[in-house]
Hints:
It is a single chain. By secondary structure, the chain is of the alpha+beta class. It has helices spanning 12-28, 34-52, 65-68, 78-85, 91-97, 141-146; strands at 70-73, 101-107, 110-115, 122-126. The protein has one domain: Actin, Chain A, domain 4 (Alpha-Beta Complex), CATH 3.90.640. 38% of the residues lie in helices and 14% in strands. Strand 3 and strand 4 form a beta hairpin. The two termini are 28 Å apart.
Amino acid sequence: QSQRRGPRADMVPEIAAAVGFVSGLLRTRGCVSEQQLQVFSGALREALTEHYKHHWFPEKPFKGSGYRCIRINHRMDPIISKAASQIGLSLPQLYQLLPSELTLWVDPYEVSYRIGEDGSICVLYEAAAAKPPSSYGMLTCKNQMMLGRTSPSKNYIMTVSS
Length: 162
């Protein structure tokens, strides 16, 4: 299996931010060893890279946002459960370790998350990008979820240290 680095190398920081965030959630519960976290992180990074391979559009960052969205809402995201199975974590264990409502958006130039259906959207990673004006009026996965809200959300920046 060759590690070919083509035009996909540009999604490395976004995937690293997403993997670091999910691994950090598992780490805070203290039930998973550092060695298991390393294996989980590697498996998740590989799975996301493969999953996003043909759905990454730096020139149109919101295109494919719904496809790239990682979601836990009474159903575990299959990409997370597959990576967790590499370290022997069962679905019931995952449900205990991770929030029951989690949305993680992995888009070119921005990775953000929300815990709970009514939680604030918090930015994990942001890179400066020349955003084309055409993308501003689009209804993204994130914007659609914001439509039914009565109060504006506050954005917080959370850093995940490894």
